[in-house]
Design brief:
The protein is mainly α. The chain is built from two helices and no strands. It has one domain. Helices cover 79% and strands 0% of the residues.
């Protein structure tokens, strides 16, 4: 992998980690404010998909 490819991969991982943090915050907000359970489940699915993407990139983030 070239350094440019590595830089692109690292940027993608960083973006996915940030998206996961935002999705976790949204899930916490929805749960704490007793919002629609369907919305809460949707955020859980989003987090799962982000985890899968990070795993595929070899950048599994501890939970």
């Amino acid at each position: 992998m070239t350094r440019h490819d590595q830089a692109r991969r690292d940027a993608l991982v960083k973006t996915l980690v940030k998206a996961k943090e935002q999705a976790e915050t949204a899930a916490l907000y929805l749960t704490a404010n007793d919002r629609d359970p369907e919305d809460i489940m949707t955020t859980a699915v989003v987090i799962e998909h982000i985890d899968i993407a990070l795993e595929q990139l070899g950048a599994l983030v501890p939970q």
